[in-house]
Amino acid sequence: MTESTEVHQPAPSSAERPLRVAIIGHAFMGVAHTHAWRTAPRFFPMAAPPELALLVGRDEARTRAAAERLEIAEIETDWRRAVEREDIDVVDICTPGNTHAEIALAALAAGKHVLCEKPLANSVAEAEAMTAAAERAAARGVRAFCGFSYRRTPALALAKRFVEEGRLGEIRHVRAQYLQDWLSDADTPLNWRLEKDKAGSGALGDIGAHSVDAAQWVSGQRIEGVSAMLHTFVETRPLAGTAQGLGGSAEAGAPRGPVTVDDAAAFTARFDGGAIGVFEATRFAQGRRNANRLEINGSSGSIAFDFESMNTLEYFDARDDQAAQGFRTIQVTDAVHPYTDHWWPVGHGLGYGDLFVHQVADVVAALQADTAAHPDFAEALTVQRVLHAVEASARNASRYTSVDRPDSQD
């Protein structure tokens, strides 16, 4: 992997010319991001609403069909040409993890702002190179964001606000689960998410990364060490079938290929602020469609969040009168809550796609105000280091492993 030495200034953007965006990839995440770029200016004030200028995909016929469906006028089949175009301001990377580093490095060198899906890369080395490039680019006014979209859930953002306000007191426990079931059928066809050379890892990086980011972000503490195990329940899967959502159905008699990533991850963690954590990520939890959960217990109270009830937050205040103590359910749809003042009347909830709308609103606000990006590549790098430490611990019989020194034997 090499980085271009040619350095460009960021393309000009102003109220007279909207931010022009190139979307790289047109599958699940590409569609979600496209929806967000188009919807955000209808709800959030923007001096210059973004413009979806270009869709990039490897196959011309499929990319053209996607562009017609998504109403994007131009396509490219080589992301390099998109990065080189003078009229592109933002490169939005929605491709598998093995492509993130090369695209992001080239885009930053070309003076393009970058929004990159999570996890940031497939290795710590790639993530470090991307972070260093982002730091150099920031000195020229070029911003780089990582798409940890669950941060934009109003209820989770409210949980972070409660921690910052001291409502939970000293943080003692962090408990995070991300439970899905779309791989429970052993005949679900093989796809790129099950191939290590493309995805980097399985449930660990695909959904566990969200848990790590949310836990660190909400608690305000960093994970400093882990003890982990990874497991693959189904070691081969059909090579042919029909895709449906994240999974699909196999063709009868189709040959099978190897699964080279974890199906499930479980680890305990120590945080640098004194808290201890328990994490679980799996795509084999029958009946759990997208149970992204976070509970934090402090000396003065607790919060509990589950994305399957994404418009609510459970909050316990230990300072309440004992006769009235108990978890209360906060409906996070009021104008005083994060993001919600731009949407519907109180009680009219939001959905999954709206997280990406919030992400675009935050990205555009940062770019137009020329302020720091969050989460930036440096924050995403901390997650990558935790994922690496988890894998190192699992290889070493679950031995406690330092995030900063994962290859040492603590």
TrEMBL record:
GO terms for molecular function: nucleotide binding; oxidoreductase activity. Residues 19-138 form the Gfo/Idh/MocA-like oxidoreductase N-terminal domain. InterPro entries: Gfo/Idh/MocA-like_OxRdtase_N, Gfo/Idh/MocA_oxidrdct_glycsds, GFO_IDH_MocA-like_dom, NAD(P)-bd_dom_sf. SUPFAM superfamilies: Glyceraldehyde-3-phosphate dehydrogenase-like, C-terminal domain (SSF55347), NAD(P)-binding Rossmann-fold domains (SSF51735). It comes from the Bacteria. Gene3D superfamilies: Dihydrodipicolinate Reductase, domain 2, NAD(P)-binding Rossmann-like Domain. This is Putative dehydrogenase. It comes from Nesterenkonia sandarakina.
